[in-house]
Amino acid sequence: MEKVIFFDRDGTLIEDKHYLSSPLYIRFKKGVLKTLKALQDRGYKFFIVSNQSGIKRGFFSYRRAERIMRELASRLKAEKILIEGIYFCPHHPGERCPCRKPKTFLLKKIKKTYPELDFSRSYFVGDKKEDIETGKRYGIKTILLSPDCNEKFEADFCIKSFSELLHIIGD
Ligand SMILES: [Mg+2]
Ligand SMILES: [Zn+2]
Which residues bind Zn(2+) (predicted)? Predict the structure, then answer.
């Protein structure tokens, strides 16, 4: 069984540019590459689970969103960091789709597609309340990345910088 970490994208792995619409604006947050590499060495598989309502809002197309995700994955791959899967919700909050975080449809889908994943040894890492709620609803440990950690949204852990993950997520 494989240990796994689910990551939010914007504001977690990369800087949160409001409705990021071009691969040109991808900027990894401080410590992300080094930390992912170390976590990979500890045996974790990585997934990205992201809300991309900018598609439905008309800021960019579905294909463009896919391109940005592909570019992100290939930049990580260049650093020998493998992203096992990238899942995103293209809908508008008002559509009440089943896949927009904090709904757990995308996690269910991942579980079905990758039966070898051990959800009991997994984490959800994100910078928003929805991320924490997604993980909690699915019964996995949650880690909030926040500059102050004043509001934890019931996350199991709160960290101020990405590299602190290495203190929380062990072998
Ligand atoms: Mg985010
Ligand atoms: Zn959706």
Answer: 89, 91, 97, 99
